[in-house]
């Protein structure tokens, strides 16, 4: 586990990328802070990007909402998944965390659209506060910086759907 945020990119991006955030409502004190920190950071480092936010009941619903967004006509350039699972006395939190992780990774590989995974599994509220609200380990800002890096990388590789040429071929209307 890292103990500090990665550095902010040196240059502000001019990309007009579309970024989707899917965030859980459960543990809203913390997930609201993740969303706010991620969007604030995105507005700073990707000021020309459009950001859409979809809220789902809990972490378990994040993958299905993400799949729907990634299969829509308006695919984002990157999707950020934000949620918080506080480990309890049973294995439920670990099972949800593993399921979400595997599902998000599969979505990213299947769609070739980067999915930034910040659905956090923590032991207690102290860890949740440090990662969601605090400034030193803030995973919302880290997610935004990772999204920036992936947008720039995919753009440099020519992999953004904006870079794909659309057919200009005309078909006869009476064919």
Automatic annotation (TrEMBL):
<comment type="function">
    <text>Catalyzes the formation of 6,7-dimethyl-8-ribityllumazine by condensation of 5-amino-6-(D-ribitylamino)uracil with 3,4-dihydroxy-2-butanone 4-phosphate. This is the penultimate step in the biosynthesis of riboflavin.</text>
</comment>
<feature type="binding site">
    <location>
        <position position="131"/>
    </location>
    <ligand>
        <name>(2S)-2-hydroxy-3-oxobutyl phosphate</name>
    </ligand>
</feature>
<dbReference type="InterPro" id="IPR034964">
    <property type="entry name" value="LS"/>
</dbReference>
<dbReference type="InterPro" id="IPR036467">
    <property type="entry name" value="LS/RS_sf"/>
</dbReference>
<feature type="binding site">
    <location>
        <position position="117"/>
    </location>
    <ligand>
        <name>5-amino-6-(D-ribitylamino)uracil</name>
    </ligand>
</feature>
<feature type="active site" description="Proton donor">
    <location>
        <position position="92"/>
    </location>
</feature>
<dbReference type="GO" id="GO:0000906">
    <property type="term" value="F:6,7-dimethyl-8-ribityllumazine synthase activity"/>
</dbReference>
<feature type="binding site">
    <location>
        <begin position="89"/>
        <end position="90"/>
    </location>
    <ligand>
        <name>(2S)-2-hydroxy-3-oxobutyl phosphate</name>
    </ligand>
</feature>
<comment type="similarity">
    <text>Belongs to the DMRL synthase family.</text>
</comment>
<keyword id="KW-0808">Transferase</keyword>
<protein>
    <recommendedName>
        <fullName>6,7-dimethyl-8-ribityllumazine synthase</fullName>
        <ecNumber>2.5.1.78</ecNumber>
    </recommendedName>
</protein>
<feature type="binding site">
    <location>
        <begin position="59"/>
        <end position="61"/>
    </location>
    <ligand>
        <name>5-amino-6-(D-ribitylamino)uracil</name>
    </ligand>
</feature>
<dbReference type="Pfam" id="PF00885">
    <property type="entry name" value="DMRL_synthase"/>
</dbReference>
<dbReference type="InterPro" id="IPR002180">
    <property type="entry name" value="LS/RS"/>
</dbReference>
<keyword id="KW-0686">Riboflavin biosynthesis</keyword>
<feature type="binding site">
    <location>
        <begin position="84"/>
        <end position="86"/>
    </location>
    <ligand>
        <name>5-amino-6-(D-ribitylamino)uracil</name>
    </ligand>
</feature>
<comment type="pathway">
    <text>Cofactor biosynthesis; riboflavin biosynthesis; riboflavin from 2-hydroxy-3-oxobutyl phosphate and 5-amino-6-(D-ribitylamino)uracil: step 1/2.</text>
</comment>
<feature type="binding site">
    <location>
        <position position="26"/>
    </location>
    <ligand>
        <name>5-amino-6-(D-ribitylamino)uracil</name>
    </ligand>
</feature>
